[in-house]
Amino acid sequence: MKTAILTDSTAYIPQEIREKLNIHMIPLSVTFGTETYREEIDLTAEQFFAKVKTHSELPTTSQPPIGLFVEMFEQLAKEYDAVISIHLSSGISGTYQGSVTAGQMVEGIKVYSYDSEISCMMQGFYAIEAAEMAQAGKSPEEIIARLDEMKRSVRAYFMVDDLSHLQRGGRLSGAQALIGSLLQVKPLLHFVDKVIVPFEKIRTRKKALKRMEELFAEDAKLGVPMRAVIIHANREEEARAWKEELQQMYPHVEFFLSYFGPVIGTHLGEGAMGFGWYKK
């Protein structure tokens, strides 16, 4: 059985990794006024953050139309027997549901839609593991079982510089945003039951980053092989330096550097930083 791996653009997997592992991608979009851009295709993260500065209103974001999923699945059916379609958390987007609906509309290919319950490169790690297994000839059921196993060790935390983006996008309640901005708090956030919730309130950016590092160290000290990622919203230099420092401290961990692209960047704002990891 030949299995394709599909994910959406919010996994922010570098193009060279997607090409090497044959990971297919379906884009989400951002709209500035009357102009709509498919992220990772029409608009890079860098271009997006530059564009935000020239617009008074935040862009809106949208999931892929069901027709695009149907088209993608029909295309894959020409070459594959099955597709595992891995998407950002169903608690913050209807993308996963779109995949489920489209999967019931196509013939000639078995569609396994998978809710990563998270986003960004942590979602990307699910697609990478799945693609590595698909290349090794594993069945869809074996791949899904591994993704479920991964889910038990996945940890990810992120901090935002400005809570107003999350509040305006409806991803965080107004009261929480107001309290945060009044106290100049840099809350650590994480996903629980598919939605974004505060983990801890921390007063400064520096302390928030330090706290993420402490949480990582609790798992990393066990010495088991791990994959980890530093994710930034237009703060590449800072993120790269942090990654290099961590790499020297934890040689048994495979570190990646990633970014919050246009869709997730719309909700988190520039300056956000994230740190995620799981056991290999």
TrEMBL record:
GO terms for molecular function: lipid binding. Keywords: Lipid-binding. It holds the Pfam family DegV. It comes from the Bacteria. InterPro entries: DegV, DegV_C, DegV_domain_contain. NCBIfam families: DegV (TIGR00762). This is DegV family protein with EDD domain.
